[in-house]
Design brief:
mainly alpha
């Protein structure tokens, strides 16, 4: 049995960013992450953020396709300051979840599992112990 607090895919929140803030809160806020996902989707889909229901809107039904999905995921990971190494793992999981259930909340739930919520200006790449 793996301890979720020390899992190699979980960000290490024991380090602090330059502004003294944790890079990500442990057990991040899915609701806050859903708002980030909604905003990024609105940008890449060129729609109003308010038109996206975080629980029901489907990325692909709104005109999204796989390349836009990768662009959106890249922007989300950049928003949270996920480093290059971690972004490969996170990108794959976010893409799989998007193809399983293309709603912002599903993406946000993964981000929350990884310790993300509201990104801060001082966010930096999460560090992991391998």
């Amino acid at each position: 049995m793996t301890d979720n607090l020390t899992s190699p895919t979980k960000p290490d929140v024991s380090t602090t960013a330059a502004d003294g803030q944790l890079p990500h809160e442990p057990g991040g806020d899915a609701q806050a992450a859903a708002e980030v996902v909604r905003r990024v989707w609105a940008q890449v889909l060129e729609v109003e953020a308010e038109s996206i229901d975080i629980h029901r809107s489907d990325f692909f039904e709104m005109g999204g396709y796989s390349l836009l999905a990768l662009q959106a995921i890249g922007r989300i990971l950049t928003e949270y300051g996920v480093d290059e190494v971690e972004s490969v793992e996170w990108e794959g999981e976010l893409l799989n979840r998007l193809f399983d259930n293309a709603t912002p909340m599903v993406q946000a739930e993964f981000l929350a599992e990884m310790g993300c919520g509201t990104p801060s200006a001082g966010s930096r790449s999460p560090e992991t112990s391998r």
